[in-house]
Amino acid sequence: MMIILRPNTPQDKIELLKKVINNFGGVEIQMIQGADTTILGLAGDTTTIDAGAIEVFDFVDRIMKVAEPYKKVNRKFHPESTIVKVGDREIGGKKLAIMAGPCSIESEEQILGVARDVKRSGAGFLRGGAFKPRSSPYAFQGLGLDGLELLKMASRKTGLPIVSEIMSSEHIDKFVEDVDIIQVGARNMQNFILLKELSHIRKPILLKRGISATIEEFLMAAEYLMAGGNDQIILCERGIRTFETYTRNTLDLSAIPIIKRQTHLPIVVDPSHGTGLWWMVESMSKAAIAAGADGLIIEVHNDPQNAKCDGQQSITPDVFAALMKKLALIAQVEDREI
Amino acid sequence: MMIILRPNTPQDKIELLKKVINNFGGVEIQMIQGADTTILGLAGDTTTIDAGAIEVFDFVDRIMKVAEPYKKVNRKFHPESTIVKVGDREIGGKKLAIMAGPCSIESEEQILGVARDVKRSGAGFLRGGAFKPRSSPYAFQGLGLDGLELLKMASRKTGLPIVSEIMSSEHIDKFVEDVDIIQVGARNMQNFILLKELSHIRKPILLKRGISATIEEFLMAAEYLMAGGNDQIILCERGIRTFETYTRNTLDLSAIPIIKRQTHLPIVVDPSHGTGLWWMVESMSKAAIAAGADGLIIEVHNDPQNAKCDGQQSITPDVFAALMKKLALIAQVEDREI
Amino acid sequence: MMIILRPNTPQDKIELLKKVINNFGGVEIQMIQGADTTILGLAGDTTTIDAGAIEVFDFVDRIMKVAEPYKKVNRKFHPESTIVKVGDREIGGKKLAIMAGPCSIESEEQILGVARDVKRSGAGFLRGGAFKPRSSPYAFQGLGLDGLELLKMASRKTGLPIVSEIMSSEHIDKFVEDVDIIQVGARNMQNFILLKELSHIRKPILLKRGISATIEEFLMAAEYLMAGGNDQIILCERGIRTFETYTRNTLDLSAIPIIKRQTHLPIVVDPSHGTGLWWMVESMSKAAIAAGADGLIIEVHNDPQNAKCDGQQSITPDVFAALMKKLALIAQVEDREI
Amino acid sequence: MMIILRPNTPQDKIELLKKVINNFGGVEIQMIQGADTTILGLAGDTTTIDAGAIEVFDFVDRIMKVAEPYKKVNRKFHPESTIVKVGDREIGGKKLAIMAGPCSIESEEQILGVARDVKRSGAGFLRGGAFKPRSSPYAFQGLGLDGLELLKMASRKTGLPIVSEIMSSEHIDKFVEDVDIIQVGARNMQNFILLKELSHIRKPILLKRGISATIEEFLMAAEYLMAGGNDQIILCERGIRTFETYTRNTLDLSAIPIIKRQTHLPIVVDPSHGTGLWWMVESMSKAAIAAGADGLIIEVHNDPQNAKCDGQQSITPDVFAALMKKLALIAQVEDREI
């Protein structure tokens, strides 16, 4: 941490500040005297220092954080890539993790039909929403626990492990029992109560990036999960909010190489929510794999026109089957397989 | 709702689409034939129509929503301004609602000292955080229920009603009993589970705008609360995320006249979180009142240098006292009082 | 164009508005009567109608534009993809257009060395800046016309056509004579004076997207060029400004399929400016081609540590050579070649 | 400037980097050795150091700039506030500078009528566009030099100094002769060629903030003007681009106290472009003055419904007259006058 002082800060103020810093403990202070500026450089573990308590002094111009605030997710302290295991399947290994299925579970026929279709095309995981966060209170909110039962049934019949979104701490026990990968949605990325509770379980978590989360904030949310002891974390880029209105969100594929550099956790991409338009799913899926993603989570619906949610961003099983063939070729270039 | 079709869409496709729309029921379809474009105009209650089920057709170019998706918060259907009542105090009336207090409750001495100071300067409400959402799992997370007890004590001794943030549904009963205004933080603005539960209680809610929420999304979150029957909603602008990095957030004061026009609910402004810098609180507070805000929620700390959170954005009781005098003059110009 | 009126607008006001609209001429007005809303639908050529003159009425709630404001760049009116020709090379054809070279031309040795290196690896075009837009007046501003001479020399000796950025109308004649593709930089995307003058020449223009330009604004800038008769336009995505600070800009690869759908013009991607970090160039280049881009423009420098600008985002000739081999494999999957 | 190295960077690499830095000259290097990180702190004049030439090394993790890159506009080196003088009027003094007039000059009758009206209400300056930057090539582009003549005439008849936007270097001589304050529009804020030429003249410049310019970039554009010797610079906040679509731009009033702190230059606010909606002009004008702005630039049109541009954001002379009365009251609170 670097503390930049305002010009001509008197010595006694600097001493006062040093005392405040030393009260936090664990750091060594070095002074850099520039032409117009004095800087205090703090070496040591600065994660316990509250920047606010320093910025509060009016002779402090600015604070610059040097060390990343995340530790357990940081590749610096854990150089090897993490591979998350779900039964005999892996996320972050050589084989790409392709998760596919409908936005929401609607009926036995629907979920089983889609499950069989995506399995046939090579998907490794079945996704499906039982609880749906919707921006309108008047929109379909999912089948709830009944939906979860249908999803389990489809999993049993196809052998595909399942991914589903949790929206409330009260369902944790149920999800731990029923679901293979618990998804935390973008809107809950900073629901710290939920994160803390999920940090204590031993199930893989698929953590979606919030639509206005910086990569640092995204990794800090993962740090919440790892701080409590859960180290089976899969990150998911799903589009950020920008000024562009053509798409629902702007899919940030540049997050992939950054996350690969900064953390050891696997990262998958959601081209369906990331664009909000079904006809963009193919090109963005290919681009994500070419950029180094460890997998994809794609909305597939057998009858998008009658889908209860997000029909406009769902592809049909036929389109998915064709996409998988193209992805296999891109994967090969990247020395991955599908 | 307007449905813009792609050029040369054949008649049978249009008929198919009409059938899909009619299945939703309750709307009348009118066709507008342009030079290159055919448009279907939907009149009636379109809130039940899922746009996704229409955008899914590849001959649909785009959908445009004409009616606002919010009803109960919409001033069109409720022209009179809502005044929220807390005991003998009002939010949205002639008197401005000034809420002040520390970011987090730290000790009996601290909260009582600040409460007495801000009361003396004319604040109408005491704010204080017991549960703190923090981006780092290693940062101070608040005193929890113990903090709430201290806040109640300060309220009893000063007579100030209290505002505090709820982070989890499990605390609702406690908050209903102990707190006068329940705050929903920016990060929980789209925690729909929490919103739904809060919609069933009968306590004023102070709903903060999410940092990347459009005004429409902000009002839809308020709609969630009102849809369940809670009509004592106070909106709070607290800064949005933009590309500018000088401030923590960009305080969007233009939201004030817009919200006044679109909804009947009162709106207050948080200049402390909105800027993240204590020396900007004065100018932004004055600007907010000049722009027509119904009140302010300001972080005041008796000892910002030792604050356990957000010291850099807290003002001292002395600065607050001086600010209140200036606000009184601005309020007068606006035909309000403090 | 749809004009949404406020509830209960009296008939005489509607008649007044109709008269205003008819004064613009060329459109037919249709009325849609909803439950709460009246809408006027305008069919015909609405590009001459000034929305401001309609929004000014206080009984007008909002205006929605239905037709895209661009015509000549619109794929609707020009379904075939445009292929820009430069000598025997093409941009937008089966062969990908790879443009490579240093940020700025610094010396004969430098530009010739890089030109030979990138040619050997398969680049089709040589890029190099003679005039450099720099955010600081104290930074290196390019060699100017001397730089252009060096670039021409390198072109003569290698046979590579050249791409260089124009910053002022006064250099148009010189650029028309010397340069094969004239680049308009992101900061000048809405320099309408410059665009108008370039619309009258007959040279290919590479138009970069402004960092905060929506895709519609980007295409309107291209429309300026085509409106004056220049139809050899190449679009270039090079990153947009978002809240994320890890990268200089956020490369918007989703712009590729959108631009392919909305316009007939070719699109290339600049992964160097789009990320600002040399180690991200490889993954973003591959992703761009996988997403369907027609080419790339990449900064290559033989000695990045001593580059006069943008060293941090330049790759070396060796890295470029390795990249080209990987791109060839991705191109093959896309049925393109390099 | 702080250079953060990656963990375990070997000593010989550090020595190499030191040599590169010393080649730039004028700085002293200090080393800070942390637990995991080594940092090089550079003291002295770092404006000549090209960060790119340092970031290019793969053992450099990141660079942090400590000193602001602007010098001449920096309040640190020029503590007194600048007052720009135009005849007997001032911008930045006790009296607020109110600039009013139509978006574009349309006719003698129009400009003279508006000029007389705004003068009567107390405006100090007449604004009017002769050259109009329009996002569509098919929209009205202004009367050009004829417009300038009409503006001069209105100035002669009313005594109001005039503000008008320049779009091209070729008109500089004309503008220096005819116009009292030369406006540089938001889209040209980084037209460095234009800025450099305007830096050599001796006329006040009103520099508008680009819609996606950070405050630092805004001040660097002003630095371009001052670097060439022009010290009569007026800054103008006019809204930035965010994700919010209700308004054309998001007016960033928090820029006012920041700019007052960072620079000695006066700042005015444009509530018309800043919101794009005439009914928001009043509240945003009052807020701007309450936040400490030195003036306003407001679009006033005698017949907004027939305005050739931006009618929707223009207020009528009557509304302007009423607004001026309210502004006078706010000004008084701020110890300013109108």
* DSSP strand tally of chain A: 14
User: Unreliable runs of chain A, pLDDT <50, ≥5 residues?
Assistant: none
3D shape of chain A: elongated
Number of helices of chain A: 11
CA-CA gap between termini of chain A: 44 Å
Of all chain pairs, the largest interface belongs to: A-B, 57 and 57 residues
Q: Helix coverage percent of residues of chain A?
A: 25-40%
CATH topology of the largest domain in chain A: the name is TIM Barrel
CATH superfamily (homologous) name of the largest domain in chain A: Aldolase class I
Give an overview of the whole structure.
- The structure is a homotetramer of 338-residue chains.
- Chain A has helices at 11-24, 52-55, 108-121, 145-158, 172-178, 192-199, 215-227, 255-262, 271-275, 281-290, 317-333; strands at residues 2-5, 27-33, 38-44, 60-64, 84-86, 89-91, 97-101, 125-127, 162-166, 181-184, 205-208, 233-237, 267-269, 295-299.
- With 338 residues, chain A is an alpha/beta fold.
- The first copy, chain A, folds into 2 domains: 2-64, 2-Layer Sandwich (Alpha-Beta Plaits), CATH 3.30.70.1140; 75-333, TIM Barrel (Alpha-Beta Barrel).
- Chain A has an 8-stranded parallel barrel, surrounded by 6 helices. In chain A, strands 2-3-1-4 form a 4-stranded antiparallel β-sheet, covered by helices on one side.
- In chain A, 59% of the residues are buried.
- Chains in contact: A-B, A-C, A-D, B-C, B-D, C-D.
- Chains A and B meet through helix 2, helix 6 and helix 7 of A and helix 2, helix 6 and helix 7 of B.
